Amino acid sequence: MSMINYASREINCKLVYYGPGLGGKTTNLEYVYGKVKPETRGKLISLATENERTLFFDFLPVDLGTVRGFRTRFHLYTVPGQVYYNASRKLILKNVDGIVFVSDSQAERLEANQESMQNLYDNLGEYGYDLTRIPFVIQYNKRDLPNAMPIPELQSALNPGWPVTEQAKQRVTPDPYHAGENLVDQIPGGQWVERTPHFEAVAIRGDGVFDTLKAVSKLVLKALT
Amino acid sequence: VTVAPAPGAQRQLAITREDSDALTDRLDAYVPAARARAALLVDRAGQLLAVTGTIENVDIITFATLASADFNANEQLARLVGETEFRTLLHRGEVLSVDLADVAGRAVLITVFDSSSTPGLVRYTAEPAARELADVLGEMIERKPRPDDDAHRLLAGAEEEIDKMFDW
Questions:
Q1: From CA A129, how far away is CA A123, in angstroms rounded?
Q2: ipTM for the whole predicted complex goes beyond 0.90
């Protein structure tokens, strides 16, 4: 739930980085922390185990600029990816405004990606949220690895599109981030589907990290307009 | 690049200047009564709603977020043992202690105190303060958006400005 504070002239929003274990969620936050000016971010807090696996969450507040004279502050969270930390994941999703799903592009992690995506749907559902109606982007991370799956295969598995039933929305909508691709499209058979924006990344060296953050933040703010 | 507005949006909480003053007034009255150093009101998602007093060298935003997560985890612990909630949570330190109390399931009242106060006094004064804060919060959440605090109106037509904001 975004919060607009007219007294302090701030808009606060909550973004959650979700995905399978060791997919690069914490790495995304670490890169952002290292790159933004210290005066525009707070501390990076990691509640992690002694071998640096996320136990509860990571947290980083960042200011991304002003709109209509209001400072926009985004609270970035990661969740623990390991399957048995579901209670923590669910807690962090409470009142979320936008989601980044960080998937691991490696072929052997496909099943873990799919399980995590299903888990995201289920956990959001328990709060009465619908993933198809929340600002949401997918990041395909670890694109530099030799066993990274081709993007079309990952898209088929993780971002096949959900049916668009609203007639007003049944029109071809180009993907602003990928020339020649569409976010809303009619598939063979006549059905209209919508996909969520996706980004390729090598988070460890920062590739795609800010593109992902900017896209989801923009979607969150536009959802308020 | 520009993107179309996202489909659907979560609920927003708008805090007007009057809301902010009303919450701060309650905290201003509570802090001396509890002999506390500071008190914070934080929503369940960890967003700071109001604060009175100071805690030296503490990043207040991070503090608020961690305290809220702490309290949310505490609530889950309660459910595991068959309670609906543990209404309070106390962390005792050598110099500073922190008391966390539920505010109508909507927020957490965080009290930071030292040896000038006691957990008992904090508890005794926090309960009525939490009830008052709950009333103010309840009014804020239940009321219909007014033209001057409606986020959609505030950001209406701001698409271009938002696009430019991320043009870096």
A1: 9
A2: no
The shortest CB-CB distance from A219 to any of B3, B14, B157 is to: B3
Given this model, what pLDDT does residue B152 score? 59
The number of beta carbons lying within 10 Å of the beta carbon of residue B152 is: 12
From chain B, the residues in CB contact with A45 under 8 A are 62, 65-66
Mean model confidence pLDDT for chain B: 86
In 3D, which of B158, B111, B143 has the Cα closest to residue B130? B111
- In 3-state terms, what secondary structure has residue A44? coil
What pTM was computed for the model? 0.89
CB of A177 closer than 8 Å to CB of B1? yes
**Chain B residues near residue A97 by CB distance under 8 angstroms:** 10
B75-124 pLDDT, tens digit each: 888 988 999 888 889 999 999 999 999 999 889 999 999 999 999 999 99
d(CA B158, CA B152): 10
| Rounded alpha-carbon distances, angstroms, from residue B47 to A11, A78, A178, A219 | 11, 16, 35, 20
Mean pLDDT on A176-199 = 95
B63-94 burial string, b = 16+ CB within 10 Å, else e?
A: bbbbbbbbbbebbeeeeeeeeeeebbbeeeee
Taking 3-state DSSP, the helix, strand and coil percentages for chain B, each rounded to the nearest 5, stand at: 45, 20, 35
